[in-house]
Amino acid sequence: MATVSKYRFANFEADLKAAELRRNGTRLKLQLQPFQVLVALLERPQDVVTREELRQRLWPEGDRKDVSSCTTERSGASANSRT
C-alpha cells in the first residue's frame, strides 16, 4: 500500500511531511493539532470520524481535552486565508 504524502482538495493542498496547508500555493497559518484533525478527516473522506477517534489520535495518553478547540483554530485559518 502506497503512503500518501499530500492531499489535494478544491484549491488546497495538505502536505503531511511538512505539516503544512496551502491554498492556491500560499501557506496558511495552522497549528499542528488542527492540522492533525484535518488529516484525520482527509484520510477517511467517506466516513464519520468521531470525537473519540480524534481524541485518541491527538491525545493518546488519555488527556481529555476538547476537540472543538482544534476545529475552531482550523476554522480561523480558513477565514484568515480569504484576505
Task: Give a written overview of the molecule.
The chain has helices at residues 32-43, 51-58, 68-80; strands spanning 6-9, 12-15, 20-23, 26-28. It has 83 residues and is an alpha+beta fold. It has a single domain, classed as Winged helix-like DNA-binding domain superfamily/Winged helix DNA-binding domain (Arc Repressor Mutant, subunit A). The protein has a 4-stranded antiparallel sheet with strand order 1-2-3-4, with helices on one face. Helix 1 (32-43) packs across helix 3 (68-80). The radius of gyration is 13 Å and the shape is globular.
So how many helices? 3
Rg over alpha carbons: 13 Å
Under CATH, the homologous superfamily reads Winged helix-like DNA-binding domain superfamily/Winged helix DNA-binding domain
The number of distinct β-strands equals 4
What is the N-to-C order of secondary-structure elements (H for helix, E for strand)?
EEEEHHH
Which segments are poorly predicted (pLDDT under 50) over 5 or more consecutive residues?
Answer: 79-83
Specify the CATH class. Answer: Mainly Alpha
Largest sheet: 4 strands, antiparallel
- Note the overall shape: globular
Structural class: alpha+beta
Strand content: 15-25%
* Cα separation of the termini: 39 Å
Strand order of the biggest β-sheet: 1-2-3-4
* CATH topology term: Arc Repressor Mutant, subunit A
- Assign the CATH architecture: Orthogonal Bundle
The number of distinct structural domains comes to 1
Described by its quaternary structure, the protein is single chain
